[in-house]
Design a protein that fits this description.
about 325 residues; alpha+beta; Jelly Rolls; Phage tail protein beta-alpha-beta fold; 3 domains; three-stranded mixed sheet; 9 helices; about 30% helix; globular; FecR_C
Length: about 325
């Protein structure tokens, strides 16, 4: 049943008709089944395959199609989606053997994963010469086969700053949940944590195209685009970046080891500090979560940062390992 569900959700994601809740469900299913995680790469390849080349057992094909069809509006009954679901049934039948996978994928992807653990940051160089800084609790992965020559596709979960090397004819594409970002050579920040309800892209230099569902916005230097994942906006609007006293946008302050917050609730700040330090906040009451703070955390320890916050608002705290208890 889970295998059918994975293919159904992959079909909806590729057709652009997957909801935020379904996307989280798909991520969970793929994480719980490492072998099925390869399905995403297979599905992407199949999406480009001519319809007439694909065959599948009729019973399985119709069963999966009849399951997903009621979930889609009439305009989504596309041949590519029908084609993917048909192939999904064939893949489900033959997935138990390596030869079955080979019907759809001549060579398995050589996935490379780079990560920054909670409370840390990492700087990495990609095979094409691009530089990526990963913020706390961030994962970046890509297929090493042909990276830099045939493709430059990466998948991001978390926050990262990209300084992309130019490569004529091979665009750099970032997949951040439901948002895709296409660029030829530029520097920009992407914030796409799984727990966030938005994906935020901040452009420092160059030009990038940010796509969400059937909408695309081209960003120019010192512009920011925040894409809401839960609602369906009529249009996407970019914003001009505001800079701090040092002349840097707040969105990339983490590169200078600064955590900037402006009139954030304690709950919002706790979420930022949790990623920053790799700790977990536990509030005694909901009213404490509504306290608001503005300021900058530089290289202070968690205890030092909380003592600084106590100068403007009354609360008590206790640190026990990686847990921080906030009380009146």
């Amino acid at each position: 049943m889970d295998n059918d569900r994975i293919w159904i959700l992959l079909g909806k994601r590729l057709s652009g008709n997957i909801s935020s809740a379904e996307l989280l469900e798909l991520d969970a299913l793929l994480k719980n089944d490492p072998e099925a995680a390869a399905s995403a790469d297979v599905a992407a390849a199949i999406w480009q395959t001519p319809l007439e080349e694909i065959t599948a057992p009729c019973g399985s094909k119709e069963r999966i199609w009849n399951t997903v069809r009621p979930q889609l509006p009439p305009s989504r009954y596309s041949a590519p989606l029908r084609r993917l679901l048909a192939t999904a049934a064939a893949a489900a039948v033959f997935a138990a053997t390596w030869a079955g996978w080979q019907l759809f994928r001549p060579a398995a992807p050589a996935l490379q994963q780079i990560s920054a653990s909670p409370g840390s940051k990492s700087r990495v160089s990609l095979p094409d010469g691009s530089i990526v800084w990963l913020n706390s609790n961030t994962q970046l992965h890509y297929d090493k086969n042909g990276f830099g020559n045939r493709h430059r596709n990466v998948t991001l979960a978390g926050e990262a700053f990209f300084d992309i090397a130019k490569s004529e004819g091979v665009p750099f594409i970032i997949h951040a949940g439901q948002v895709n970002i296409r660029v030829l050579g530029t520097a920009f920040n992407v914030k796409a944590y799984a727990s966030d309800s938005t994906v935020a892209t901040t452009l420092v230099r160059g030009k990038i195209a940010v796509s969400f569902r059937n909408k695309t916005v081209v960003l120019r230097p010192e512009e920011k685009l925040t894409v809401p994942l839960v609602t369906r906006p009529d249009r996407l609007r970019s914003q001009h970046l505001e800079k701090d006293s040092s002349g840097q946008p707040a969105e990339i302050s983490w590169l200078q080891h600064k955590l900037i917050f402006d009139n954030n609730t304690f709950a919002e700040l706790a979420d930022k500090m949790s990623r920053w330090y790799g700790i977990t906040f536990r509030f005694k009451s909901a009213s404490l979560q509504q306290l608001r703070f503005s300021g900058i955390i530089d290289r202070e320890s968690p205890a030092e940062a909380l003592k600084m916050l106590q100068l403007s608002r009354h609360f008590s705290f206790r640190i026990d390992g990686n847990d921080v208890y906030i009380s009146d």
